[in-house]
Task: structure prediction
Amino acid sequence: MTANIQYSIAFLVSLASSLSLTRFVGSHARRFGLVDPVDDRKIHTEPIPRLGGVALFCAVGLGIFALCLKSGFQTFPLGRPMFSALLGGAGMFALGLYDDLRPMRARYKLLVQVGIAAAVAVFGIRLTGVTLPFLGEFALGPWSAAIITGVWLVGVSNAFNLIDGLDGLAGGVALLALCALFIVSVLFGHIGAAITTVLLAGAIIGFLRYNFPPASIFLGDSGSLFVGFMLAGVGLVASQKTSGNVSLVIPMVTLGLPILDTALTIVRRFLRLQPIFSPDRGHIHHRLLGRGHSPRNVAFLLYIACALFSTAGAFLAYPADSVVLLVVMLSMMCLVGLALLIQRLGFIEFQELGRLARGSITPRETIGRNVRFREASTRLAELDDVRGIFEALSVVFADEQIPRAEVRLQRWFLSRRPAVVTSDGRGDDELPVWTMSHADTESEGWWEIVLPLVAADERRMGSLVIWEDGQSYAASLSHLHVISEHLRIQLQQKLQLLGWPEAEELARHAELGILPFEKAVGAENTGEFGHRALRPTGSFKDLLGPKRTK
Result:
């Protein structure tokens, strides 16, 4: 059976199987409630079935069965290296499916992934050396080869799991990478790897019929981990110029987009003092969506980027130094474009890192805190109610490194009545309307820093007050510029725009001397927003009135 016939059988069977199975799995997953729920981090607005990986895995399996049936089951058509990669991919699929049905802790998932990758590295895909452009070949010992292989397999698997946050994105990126790896496999004579790319491509095309924006089914962890692991395995096998000697730069460039997004994610979360596996909305596709692009346009933009990476990876398979030099130059241009992209997309973490490089700030903790303050400023700009403003402040000031924070508003602002000015020219008293406290700041040694909130007509409408330990001011006050120049300005703009709901009721409380919070500090009760706060005489719910729904 010729290679072309094998390619045709593999593609057509996996494509047809995927088209029928994806629809079947989607309808039954919805019937049994196996859906991805809606939350603040997700983009979709209604629950979507998340077991698309089941259809994709079964479609690949049926394609392999058809090839074996055609050959009379005399030999496995993909060869030993790809057989071990498929076994590892099946293990990743099972792990992801279990996580889709019963969510696991990230550390346990990682432990199982390392075990699967180690088994494939030791008993399946064996590397003896690595080839790097302009540097030549480097021999690898058994331990170093196993470590490099394991890290690669686990890293790429999780990279695809992380990038699977937008309709059609992970599938489209995988399809473009498979095209490049097919070319590399054929050039280097790895027919088994080439057939595997065709199997995966057919299954993914059938799946994208239902996953392209707006999606009716998601890959889920079962699909993203399986596809990522298979791409990692195919990349290692396809890029071997000689037995066991892999040109590692080829799959690295080909899979450049998910690797890049994962690297940015790791650095961002490190700077933010967050766990590496904690979810957020800081991926490249989230940033593009935040810039006003539609999900479909974001997918196309990232397809173009992935196509450039895949083309560069395919060109690296040609041995001519001139071609390699051209690819290196293009890669340098891509790095420059990446730097501009980071600046354009507003990655606050890297802006703070730039300030660190210039010597403006020093500790990593300060970077993480500054990032949270600036993100809170961005969130405030999107809010349209006072309740949401104080919820956002409660989150950002939950960090106990800031002992206490308070928002005070002038009575004239709360009641919209003329300000009362005393004989000594001092403005009428301010009323504390929100407080977050982690320490007893009434004792000596605390600095009370008052940042004014000023209305457009230059009248003072209140204050944002924070307390700091005077003995550690050199480190603790390094974030004041962020609070003053970002959070304070956004807070005063929003308060002036929105005013204060139920103003007359609050003004009546003020006239009776009833404040929203007592002056006692250090109360251990849980406040309105789930953090330790000053004990209220009346809750925010009383002051703001019933929560309004749109």
Notes: Confidence is low (pLDDT under 50) at residues 417-427, 510-550. Residues 3-346 form one domain.
